Amino acid sequence: MSTSNLAQALQSAIGGQSKRKQLQLVTEEMYRRYAVLRENRPLAIGTGDVLAAALPHFDATVISRALSNHCARISYQKQLAKGGRRFNLNGKPEGEVDEGAKTHAQALVDAAQEKAKAAAAATKGASTAAKADVESASAADDAADQA
């Protein structure tokens, strides 16, 4: 089987999967191939096009979604907020993180941390309220037993 026939067969097999499954496959392949993604280093501008060319057997929109999901991760945003160099898929420096990107990333990190604090406080408040309800019910049972 020639290389082009093999590529077509692979693309056809992947294309038959659900979009969710395709997204999972692309994500696994990206992280397997590229340490720069596993390390959450700031990516060079244009990485999506390079990734689409490197993974031609996957649909470009699915690759774009997988890369978007990666870049939305707080661990990635924290690295971006630090500034410094951007890196290509081979881990080589390619450009710098500009101030606008740093500021935007820091705002996303701050918002995520506030959301996490609020969720933790709500969970703690619900836990405290549930504990108070249990103690109140227990006290009522004790009072009923004594009567």
From TrEMBL:
SUPFAM superfamilies: FinO-like
InterPro entries, alphabetized: ProQ/FinO, ProQ/FinO_sf
Biased composition (Low complexity): 120-141
Pfam families attached to this UniProt entry: ProQ
Positions of region (Disordered): 120-147
Keywords: RNA-binding
Molecular function GO terms recorded: RNA binding
UniProt superkingdom: Bacteria
Gene3D superfamilies, A to Z: ProQ/FinO domain
Domain ProQ/FinO residue range list: 18-125
This protein's name: ProP expression regulator
